[in-house]
Amino acid sequence: MYDLVLNNGWVVDGTGRPGFAGSVGILRGRVARIGKGEQALEGREVLELDGLAVCPGFVDVHSHSDLSILGNPRAESSLRQGITTEIAGNCGWSMAPLHKQLADVLATRLVRGLAGEEAAGALRFNWSSLAEFLEVVEALGTGNNLGTFVGQSMVRGYVMGGEDRVPSATELQKMRALVAAAMDDGAFGLSTGRSYFPGRLASTEEVIELARVVSQYQGLYTCHLKNQDSAIDASVEEVLEIGRWGRTPVQLAHHKVCSKPCWGRLGQTLERMDAARAQGVDVMADVYPFLFTQVSYLGSRLPEWVTKAGEAEGAALLQDAETRRKVKEEMLARVEPASGQPVSATLGRMAQSGVVYCRETKGYEGMDLGEVAQAKETDLADAVLLLLAENQLMVKTAGIMSAGDLRTILRHPLAMISTDAYALDRPLDEKAAVHPRHYGTYPLVLGQYVREEGLLTLEEAVRKMTSLPARRVGLLDRGVIAAGA
Ligand SMILES: [Zn+2]
């Protein structure tokens, strides 16, 4: 007698081997029996599947749920797409080691953006180590399993604040000790966000020093690249260097090439990955199956006196050529916090961001802003303002990727599926610049790329969602349907 029985399913066991008709019996939380054919098993709870697929829960190795889970512990957006285990702490950001000064920042962000006052109000950001953070999560109780990497931005920030210099020997030793402590507490490895502050201030050698610590624990080094467009080759090369000299497995996180002029180059980075493997670097990649990155409001580039006027009134202001000239001047002079440069100096980058949503002028969706300017036969800044005016300021932009590149990486045998998202518990609407990957990453792969296009077999897609990521982080009893798992 099993606790739970899944009768007459189509077992896709996560290893990639062909699916088969069968039943699965579960006892005390583990797979106890896999019966082939139509033989029914008996259990206290029985689900008759009529041929529906049975597969392991999905393992998301690139999650950002470690902050949002505190406000959304049921993790519904993850669970409802099949994710039972997620590994957070990516892109250099983790919840530990947590410096006192950062605790307030995180608390404010959670209250404002991710939860409600009520949910977050009860939380105290009073942990410091990873073990202490995991106790907080454990006490809260979560809908699925959460693991984490230790983020290099947190480690560097803890020891050196935001200082842009080489660490002293003592500081480096402190950083190494913090990484070791996090690994002792159960971190799955080290993550970096090489384009983000303050992680980007570290030299390659500094990261190698930390990777060496992780290597002693058989952990993984996962990297958000320095650059994901024109300088992607050098950025991939840095990760391979870190793998080579840090003697650790490395991961190209949410691997993609953004912006139209760079489309088609992902095949080369994957060839580079294969070549490095042949030379002994254990490198793999993960990918989310969408053609655009984090979404932002184009209207956030406007001066406040325009946005504050509201949608209709703001749009009316931009219809007037004289006002537009004034707005344009202010917009171009504004210094971007990310780059520290005025907008006028970064127009090349801005031209490459893609239009992913327009409330009215749908024809511009899919173009980049440079193409919008060409279509409108005007300069970039003017085109931005006209586009905002035509859509009552409701235009969303993002980095955009090519369908060809996405198919290339989805097919690669060492590329696994991940979300790059965080667990949420709120609906999608026009006002929420929320990426659909939070809700639909795994369904999109199974629906479009398996069922509709046949780009991947069901077995191969499930392998990329289960055993491949589970093995990558050393989880040996997950990601497969096998006795004892
Ligand atoms: Zn990232």
Bound molecules: zinc ion
User: Major beta sheet, specifics?
Assistant: 6 strands, parallel
CATH architecture of the largest domain: Alpha-Beta Barrel
Q: How much is the radius of gyration in Å?
A: 24 Å
Question: What is the CATH homology-level superfamily of the largest domain?
Answer: Metal-dependent hydrolases
Please report the number of helical segments: 20
Low-pLDDT parts are none
CATH topology of the largest domain: TIM Barrel
Q: Using DSSP, what is the number of strands?
A: 17
The class by helix and strand makeup works out as alpha/beta
Which whole number gives the mean pLDDT? 93
Helix amount: 40-55%
Alpha-carbon distance between the termini?
18 Å
* Beta-strand residue percentage: 15-25%
Report on the architecture of this protein.
With 485 residues, this protein is α/β, with parallel strands linked by helices. It has three domains: 2-58, Urease, subunit C, domain 1 (Roll); 59-291 and 402-454, TIM Barrel (Alpha-Beta Barrel); 296-398, no CATH class. Helices cover 40% and strands 16% of the residues. The protein has 20 helices and 17 strands. The protein has helices spanning 65-68, 76-79, 100-114, 117-121, 130-140, 152-160, 169-184, 204-216, 232-246, 266-278, 304-307, 311-319, 321-333, 347-351, 369-376, 380-390, 403-411, 437-452, 458-465, 467-472; strands at residues 2-11, 20-27, 30-36, 43-48, 53-54, 58-60, 83-88, 145-148, 150-151, 189-193, 220-224, 250-252, 283-287, 296-297, 354-358, 395-398, 415-417. The protein has a six-stranded parallel beta sheet. Strands 1, 2, 3, 4 and 5 form a five-stranded mixed beta sheet that branches. Helix 6 (152-160) crosses helix 7, helix 12 crosses helix 16 and helix 18 (437-452) runs antiparallel to helix 19. The protein is globular, with a radius of gyration of 24 Å. The two termini are 18 Å apart. The model has no long low-confidence stretch (mean pLDDT 93). Zinc ion binds at residues 91, 193, 224, 253-254.
